Amino acid sequence: MFNHLGKPIRLLKLIAASAISTVLLVSFQNCSSGFSVSAQLNSSSSSNGGNGNGGNGGSGSDQMRQWPDTTSGIHIFHDQVNLANFSQAQIQFIATHYAGVQKISANDAATIRKINPNFLVLHYRLGLGLGYQLPSSNCTPNGHDIQILVGNNWVPEWPGDSIVQPQWLFGFNGSPRVYSCTNGWYIMNIANPSYETWWLGQVRSQLAANNDDGIFMDSFSIPNFFGSSNFSPNLPTVDTSFEDNWAMMMKNWLIFLKAHLPGVYLVPNVGSWITGRDHTDIVVPADGMMVEQFALPNESGTYAESDWQLEMNRILMAVARNQAIIGQTYVSSEKNRMFAVGSYLLIKGTRTYLSVNNTMGPEWYPEYDIPIGAATESAGGSIQDLFDATVGVYRRNFSNGFVLVNPSATSINVPLGGIYYLAQTTPDGVLTVNSSGQEAGTISYAMVNSVTLSDHSAAVLFNSHP
Predict the structure, then answer these.
(1) d(C-alpha 341, C-alpha 325), whole Å
(2) Could you report the per-residue pLDDT of 287-334, keeping only the tens digit for each?
């Protein structure tokens, strides 16, 4: 993710949700050993509680902008765009090449929608917290205000100490509030009815001011998954009861919002989704999700093959529910970009988007232009369904060729059994579109009868020269 200063914020894990026909409101009470939970059961319409269809935002309104169909090709959903210094050619490029963004001013969105009326915009908010101030080195909130976009202005997310009520804040282990020493926000009690009502009112007015299509709910993870020592006071490192209670609250928070925001897409950030403790049923009521650090944690790191498999399998579960997926990663080398694209092609459904994100645009990579066509086979229910045991790599066939992906730590040579054309992209690095609207990268095609996939790499091959 990028904050309003354009600086990358690396976020950790998140979770998911399953639709239920009742809402269980949970409240926390401080006690010396941590917290206790009391629950109140409120009825909720199952139709408004979210059906996980990923397509209608819970309303079925014909007026909603739809998620663009991603059946064929590679589709991009960018993080943040500011048109202030862009030429008309660059603006035209963004409008015709991006499916949407999740941080943009109302005026800039209107400019793009004059060219592409179907351009999707998500409103950025923290999912479980309220941004306050960036911390000092000793975890004291005394830095820059954490801000969000409202209309055309960046404003503090924190509404003021006189407005925030004590019961809105999540307290733990005798402390009335818990502060993120990493990102400068307070954890909120998302089960408190007064806070729910206030937050809902704020978001409704902001959605209208921005003409947004949905809400991007950042940092939507069980709080201690961000690191217990990254909060003041410290949260438990591992605590099943703590995590189960938070998972229940988060699921109910999404169900509540679906019931009260018909026609609005809910898109939480589920993080990298690579740990066994993730509660992956939480986001079932949502219309989609971002998987951050998709395929790779960063430019210099890789996932263990088992972690990559876990991430892909969890995404496939969401794709099977027809939920929108935004796979966002922070890489720049050709090898890593191609691995992200290859992983994307393996799990791609009808609402699946990629974002290799390093700047506020107009960022574009030659891998995006690879004309692979539409998949000719389902991804299946497990990534193992695409594993070719004869050569030891993952393969998925498309109308114009196929993709091979090697998520292992070893190099693998793959004989192809015939002549194919290997897509090769250049150059390395962060690439942007120039003021004339021209891309910086190029694609060439090499005739091959075998290909060697180094560790954590991918290849796209064509049946005939594109």
Answers:
(1) 14
(2) 999 999 999 999 999 999 999 999 999 999 999 999 999 999 999 999
**Mean of per-residue pLDDT scores for the chain:** 88
Question: How many angstroms from the chain centroid is the CA of residue 79?
Answer: 9
Contact residues for 193 (Cβ-Cβ < 8 A; gap 6+): 25
Letter for the amino acid at 71? T
Give 354-383 as a DSSP string: EEE-SSSS-B--GGGG----BBSS---SSG
Task: Match 């990254």 to its residue by tokens.
Answer: 230
What is the C-alpha to C-alpha distance for residues 412 and 391, in angstroms, rounded to an integer?
8
Per-residue confidence (pLDDT) for residue 361, from 0 to 100:
77
Q: What is the pTM of this model?
A: 0.87
Here the tokens at position 298 are: 């960063």
Domain boundaries, the chain: 16-375
Closest among 186, 190, 103, 106 to 148, alpha carbons compared = 103
Structural contact between residues 296 and 336, judged by C-beta atoms closer than 8 angstroms: yes
Residue 450, pLDDT score: 98
Question: How far is the C-alpha of 355 from the C-alpha of 415, rounded, in Å?
Answer: 31
C-alpha radius of gyration, the chain, whole number: 22
Report residues of the chain scoring pLDDT below 50.
1-62
**Residue 198 CB coordination number (10 Å):** 16
Judge contact between 150 and 107, C-beta under 8 A.
no
State the DSSP code for 146: P
Q: What is the DSSP string of 422-443?
A: EEEEE--S--B--TTS--S-EE
Which CATH architecture group holds 16-375? Alpha-Beta Barrel (3.20)
